[in-house]
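Reopening this one. Same input as before:
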Amino acid sequence: MPADPSSVHTDSDQALPHLATDDVWADSHIITAAARTGTNIELQIHTSIAPFDAAAEAWFPAATGFTVTVIVHTVDAQTGEPRYLPPAEPAEWARTIFSIVEAAHGYFLGAVDPATGVHRGSQLAYRLYLDTNRRAIPVPHQVVTCPHYLLPALDGRAEVTIDTNP
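Same output, byte for byte:
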């Protein structure tokens, strides 16, 4: 994990969102960075946080907290057209953002619109669920709108690491 997640070394001075603050969910957060694993590919990383309040259902307790959604669009840096990028780098951006609240992992939703579950090309979506104290929790089953796959914590595998030291 990065040593200093408060600033990301990209072509500009864009900072990661602070997930532990109370007012961060009011606006989405956007970071643009050149891909480190592709030529002329740009990552447009959209982070949003929204509250949820899930009523109890059979076998599932009520849950209240925040949903953190990270959507990574991969586009051609010159034209803005969709481009393919292997998922290792977008996943590392999601892990880096989730690490701000000391979450070891989140969920990979795939190339879908997280709200509808409909396929969206050239984007990858990730989710993290926080309780009201901004601690990571398992996904409440009542809020699942599309498949969620556990995004494993870093375990020594060869991954792309986001350099946060300028």
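So the earlier flakiness isn't reproducible anymore. For the record, The first strand starts at residue 29 and ends at 34.
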